[in-house]
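Before a colleague's protein record goes any further, I have to sign it off. What it holds is a sequence and that sequence's fold in token form. Would you go through it and say whether the fold makes sense for this chain? The record follows directly below this note.
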Amino acid sequence: MERIVKPDTVLAYRTKEFLDSDDARPLRILAEYLEPLASFRRENILDTVVFFGSARLSPEGPLGRYYEDARELARLVTLWSKSISSNAHRYIVCSGGGGGIMEAANRGASEAGGRTIGLNIRLPHEQLPNPYVTPELSFEFRYFFMRKLWFAHLARALVVFPGGFGTLDELTEFLTLAQTRKLDRPVRILLYGPTYWNEVINFEALVRHGTISREDVGLFQYADDPVTALRLLQAGLGAEAPLATPDFAGSRSVDP
């Protein structure tokens, strides 16, 4: 006998109270994977150049030159990206979608006439998406780990500008993935502003104490101007990079 659903009955997946509950947390996590995945496939986004850095930096502040450098580098990367002959969108500038360095990166890419991604995070102190993100490539995340997954999934390069706890978290996450060979392809990592980074992180001390190896310092390079940074990115990436998108969350063993 066919079951008759009353008109006032609300389906579970349309019940906001349930979707916001602890029981539905796995559904919310899955949605933060599936929505970006569908969008990137639809928009034919193949890979990204990710910009990290402080949301607190402004052009007028003491570290204001980094805002302008991020803006210029993103503009140069986007012009280079547009010059690559491909059926897909290559090396799209991606940021955390907020202010400061994130805004500068999206702004520079937009000024070059390119598409640009913003992976925004919902915080207690509201972080609003900056106006330079391409609307169909603007995403809002509740979970930090899902946001970081999408930073890593499509990244072919990472440019890390001066930043605080969030930037350090993102940088060390990528360095750990590279060190342990959990990435399916090389990711070029640039630390932008060697004066800042050598003061904030004493990599030589980590080597001296034996907590990282000398080879681990080779996981990244330094840059201090947009032209040099672009040259390093181009040397490490090239226009003839493999077209296949890495498998999602393709964590693999060190052994073949």
In short: The two ends are 55 Å apart (CA to CA). The chain has a mean pLDDT of 88. The first helix runs from residue 16 to 19.
